[in-house]
Write a structure and sequence with these properties.
It is a single chain. With about 90 residues, the chain is α+β, with helices and mostly antiparallel strands. It contains three helices and four strands, in the order αααββββ.
Length: about 90
């Protein structure tokens, strides 16, 4: 019985650590400003999960379908940030 309780506590602690480490927060989203450089955004959010680029534009996504930040860049500068589920 003690081992089960200990296992439950450890699982909860690790879960809280991983959730607390996420950079996908409203606070970080609010730091993103129009005209900000791509590298500055990466400094705030980390590397994106996916980027598509064409004709000097780039659209990058941090997160997944349920919770994400999407940012459109022109010339590596933020032009359209959006978010879902934060």
């Amino acid at each position: 019985m003690k081992q089960i309780k200990l296992l439950m506590v450890l699982t909860l602690m690790f879960g809280m650590i991983f959730v607390g480490c996420s950079k996908l927060t409203q606070e970080n989203y609010k730091k993103i400003e129009m005209g900000m450089e791509y590298e500055q955004v990466v400094g705030i959010l980390g590397n994106p999960e996916n980027c598509d680029a064409a004709l000097g534009t780039k659209k990058c996504i941090w997160g997944n379908d349920a919770k994400h930040i999407t940012i459109a860049f022109i010339g590596d500068k933020v032009v359209l940030p959006s978010m879902k589920g934060l």
